[in-house]
Amino acid sequence: MSNAFRDLLKKVGSGNHTGENLTRDEAATATRMILRQEATPAQIGAFLIAHRIKRPTGEELAGMLDAYDQLGPKLQPITSGQRVFILGLPYDGRSRTAPISPVTALLLSAAGQPVIMHGGDRLPTKYGLPLVDIWQELGVDWTGLSLAQTQQVFEATGLGFIYLPQHFPLAQGLFEYRDQIGKRPPFATMELIWCPYAGDAHIVAGYVHPPTEGMFQTAFAVRGTQYFTTVKGLEGSCDLPRDRTAIIGLSTQNPHEPIERLHLVPRDYGFTTKNVLLESTTQLLDAMQSVLQGQPSELMQTALWNGGFYLWQCGVCPDMQSGIAKAEDLLRSGTVTQQLEKITQVLASVTRSLIKF
């Protein structure tokens, strides 16, 4: 048993009257001890559920991110005129609405905007459809690449994926605990704003509950993160909804200033107010292939709605309307399909090099 960890556990697990928040340094220490399994399983499980009940603070999230920065993987800076977008999505996947973020990532990278995604396999507590499965169905298998190989793909295509089982096994080791406690611990919140990139980045984080956005803002301010976007998205992702107004927070140049609030109404841009449901993986991939071929569909509307917003926000287009038009042109012209083919070819080449070696 770790006496040092027990002292940290006592602070977060002592209840409303005597419990205390951790400092940034304490949160970083606790996270390092959990990742390294220096605390006992009983201590780790107790900490995760106690911290969830207490609810994390932004300062605690900042400390957890400090530990991830110290122990986790990072893709190295690439030569690009664009700040790299980090798309933060829930690791436990999607179960109700059709995800569009892989198409968004392809659109952005095809337009010259580098993107990094991160995640793992089907994970607790939702065990929804994960990003890595969608990519595999599209012909891009990130799961067998080392970090160095992923770096090669990222440098050649502007798209990278940090796959936890391969690149960050310390974090992967926490998922058994998360399954056993049956609830998302604060690590599931922190992961949405983790940045596995060593260069200049813009973090895009989805969330469900408004207090979570406030935690994000505090963590960003504490860490001096200047560039970020928050999205009250579908199932906590950064996919913009179509059935309601999209509520978005945009960072200012000063991380200590309030965010700029943006409300986007789908019908103002000619979109129907309807989300595409996730019926099955097969149905989703068929619909995605249709989108990549530039064919009209409900999922195409979702792709244009999201692609237009992100092309605008990364500076490729001057406004939302021109972003939507640009997204449509990239899809209908076959440019996005060509980008997908390029990624598969580069990945295959990297994999062949490993086999030869």
Automatic annotation (TrEMBL):
Keywords: Amino-acid biosynthesis, Aromatic amino acid biosynthesis, Glycosyltransferase, Transferase
MF GO annotations: anthranilate phosphoribosyltransferase activity
Any one GO cellular component localisation term in the record: cytosol
Gene3D superfamilies in the cross-refs: Nucleoside phosphorylase/phosphoribosyltransferase catalytic domain (3.40.1030.10), Transferase, Pyrimidine Nucleoside Phosphorylase, Chain C (1.20.970.10)
InterPro entries xrefs: Anthranilate_Pribosyl_Tfrase, Glycosyl_Trfase_fam3, Glycosyl_Trfase_fam3_N_dom, Glycosyl_Trfase_fam3_N_dom_sf, Nuc_phospho_transferase
Domain Glycosyl transferase family: 96-335
Domain Glycosyl transferase family 3 N-terminal, chain residue ranges per copy: 6-69
Alphabetized Pfam families for the sequence: Glycos_trans_3N, Glycos_transf_3
Origin: domain of life: Bacteria
Annotated GO biological process: L-tryptophan biosynthetic process
SUPFAM superfamilies listed in its UniProt record: Nucleoside phosphorylase/phosphoribosyltransferase catalytic domain, Nucleoside phosphorylase/phosphoribosyltransferase N-terminal domain
Protein's UniProt name: Anthranilate phosphoribosyltransferase
Annotated source species: Gloeocapsopsis dulcis AAB1 = 1H9
